Amino acid sequence: MEIGVQQAVLNLSDTTFADEIKQGGVVLVDFWAEWCGPCKALTPIIEELAQEFAGRAKVAKVNVADGPEVAQQYGIRSIPYVLVFKDGEKVDELNLTLSKENLTNLIEHHLK
């Protein structure tokens, strides 16, 4: 099961970000870094959300080292930071209250 969970989370970079977001639907994107303790703590929640929303919404991660241009484009100044896109457009963001409940509610809201 662990392998399936890891495969469900998309790992995006500067070169893959735009194409994946433009495919439409709801996409939750977690901006993170290897050295960030809170980011590592959020990883299991992101993986759970990817499984729970499989087929309804995409869940992706951008390591800011692999996506510095994307992070700059969206004004990411602290991590972890979550953006939500719907049909290619940024529709929401969250950075302080990154609990599973809050992230689930965020995705559900934009699926309506």
TrEMBL record:
The record marks G37, P38 as: Contributes to redox potential value. It comes from the Bacteria. One of its GO terms (molecular function) is protein-disulfide reductase activity. Keywords: Disulfide bond, Electron transport, Redox-active center, Transport. InterPro entries: Thioredoxin, Thioredoxin-like_sf, Thioredoxin_CS, Thioredoxin_domain. GO terms for biological process: cell redox homeostasis. GO terms for cellular component: cytosol. Residues 1-112 form the Thioredoxin domain. Disulfide bonds join C36-C39. The keyword Disulfide bond applies. Belongs to the thioredoxin family. PANTHER family: GEO12009P1 (PTHR45663:SF11). This is Thioredoxin.
